Amino acid sequence: MYTDFDRCVRAVRSKDARFDGWFYTAVLTTRIYCRPSCPAVPPKDRNMTFYPSAAAAQQAGFRACKRCRPDASPGSPQWNERADLVARAMRLIGDGTVDREGVTGLAARLGYSTRQIERQLLAELGAGPLALARAQRAQTARVLVETSELPMTDVAFAAGFSSIRTFNETVREVFALTPSELRDRAARAPRSAAPGTLTLRLPFRRPLCPDNLFGHLVATAVPGVEEWRDGAYRRTLRLPYGRGTVALSPRADHIDCRLALSDLRDLAGAINRCRGLLDLDADPEAVDELLAADEALAPLVAEAPGRRVPRTVDPEEFAVRAVLGQQVSTAAARTLAARLVTAHGEPVDDPLGGGLTHLFPSPEALSALAPESLAMPTGRRTTVLRLVRALADGELSLGVGSDWARAEARLAELPGVGPWTTGIIAMRALGDPDAFVPTDLGVRYGAAARGLPATPAALTRHAAAWRPWRAYAVQYLWAAQPHPINDMPED
Questions:
Q1: Phi and psi, residue 237, nearest 5°
Q2: Who contacts 438 (Cβ-Cβ below 8 Å, separation ≥6)?
Q3: Which residue in 279, 314, 434, 440 is the catalytic one?
């Protein structure tokens, strides 16, 4: 969009928050870059230029606006809507792959040369993987500086910088403030209530309907791994450098996020996973506009616009849970998963003294178990073991940088994994916005209630008009019938 000068100018003049994250406005006279909705008086048209990423604006010598904080805007919805090389690379960079493994590690995960990745990212985003990772490190550093009392040395290395000097120079270049000045400006802001806990705000594009998000997560929560407590969805996290817990609470204009991490180098990845869990980078107006064009869905969209797809922080965990949930009730699936966690999960301490006790067992741990140690029917046990072995051996990749089509094809090849399981994993673990589960009973009942075809084949044909947002249509169809997954949990 940033190449359409007139359209960008109109968005800036109207302070349209829908375009935050889609592009960035750079002001040639002040050398500042902003989000489109910046509350400051818009500059003259001739003094504006536009960039597709914060990293590109930073590379061009612009610093972040202190008023609108463009680095904290919602991410571009494109990276969760697409499955091409650039989108997969952006998801991996957001998860911290470049910081942990370098550009060569990013290339290895994507199966392309570093030169090809550099070329495509530069063409679309105006910045290469190193610059994009640098922009993310700067934002992570800002969060740590403003929300913690950590010494600046610890902040620098936790944010992924290789030296204090690089940390200081980057912060000054991006924010036009030293790290100490950033902390002084934030001194009056509320601090975390518990020692070792970071509190931050996760922005989103409006509208957002939190009911089905939190209702679904809590209705299907695995005891010991997830819980609803004091108005927050809480769960344990398995992260590249360690473990953690998160509490997520819906607010009118943001999600309140409280993180406790064993290693602060996981901060950027943990934030990225929490945003993915709640689908916060979606473009709800684009989704709802298309779905509301169907007379059967229009009343559901009008009643609760902005439904998101509840996803996951751990694709491998969700895949196992999807197999456990085959052809059983939600309560039965929770019971099976809870038994697995109690028997084979990794114990953790809950920093807030709640009910979080375990990490969900990893594919590596489950694949090493003797089959008879898994307390479940023989057929399901066989399917679970084949799934976790494929995940542990690398034959199946469900991570943020995975190729959706390849992953779905490989899932479909596993004995015992049918269309429903493949579809639900594609929708919630892979994040495919067009994943569809026409055989799901809730979808069929919801379709019948709205006068839509109830047979899978006929419903699939009708749903062609909902592409590429069929996963969101599923959320509205589920809402057509009363069920706990559609209701905000009660304290």
A1: -130, 130
A2: 444, 456, 457, 459, 460, 463
A3: 440
Interatomic CA distance for residues 133 and 148, integer angstroms: 22
Lookup result for tokens 């406005």: 25
C-alpha distance from residue 146 to each of 96, 107, 230 (Å): 21, 33, 25
Does the active-site annotation cover 403? no
Span 134-153, pLDDT tens digits: 999 999 999 999 888 889 99
- Return the bridge partners of 249, or none: 256
| Sign of the dihedral defined by the CA atoms of residues 19, 269, 81, 58, in that order | positive
Are 109 and 240 contacting, i.e. CB atoms less than 8 angstroms apart?
Answer: no
- Crossing angle for the helix pair 97-110 and 85-94, nearest 10 degrees? 150
For residue 215, name the pLDDT band (cuts at 50, 70, 90): very high
Instruction: Dig out the tokens for 36 from the structure.
Output: 């489109």
d(CA 387, CA 381): 10
Give CA torsion, residues 8, 9, 10, 13, to 10 deg.
Answer: 130
Burial 69-103 (b: 16+ CB within 10 A, else e): bbbbbbbbbbbbbbbebbbbbbbbbbbbbbbeeeb
> Going along 239-307, which residue ranges are E strands?
243-250, 255-261
- Quick: pLDDT tens for 406-430: 999 999 999 999 999 999 999 999 9
The H-or-E segment that residue 199 falls in is strand 197-202
For 32, phi then psi, to 5°, come to: -115, 145
User: Is there a catalytic annotation at residue 440?
Assistant: yes
Q: Which amino acid type is present at position 174?
A: V
Residues 6+ apart with CB under 8 A from 281: 21, 74, 75, 76, 77, 79, 80, 204, 205, 275
| Residue count (the chain) | 491
Q: Which two tokens stand for residue 30?
A: 């002040």
In whole angstroms, what separates CA 194 from the centre of its chain? 25
DSSP state of 47: G
What three-state secondary structure class fits 351?
Answer: coil
Residue 207 CA to residue 301 CA, distance in Å, equals 11
Beta bridge partners of 50: 25
Which one of the listed residues 8, 34, 38, 65 is annotated catalytic?
34
Q: Phi/psi of residue 125, each to 5°?
A: -115, -5
The span from the CA of 102 to the CA of 26, in Å, is 29
Q: Give the residue from 217, 188, 165, 171 showing the smallest Cα distance to 66.
A: 171
3-state secondary structure of 198: strand
Residue 291 tokens read as: 């779905």
> What CA–CA distance (Å, rounded) separates 291 from 299?
10
Stated pTM of the model: 0.94
Q: How many beta carbons lie within 10 A of that of residue 193, not counting itself?
A: 9
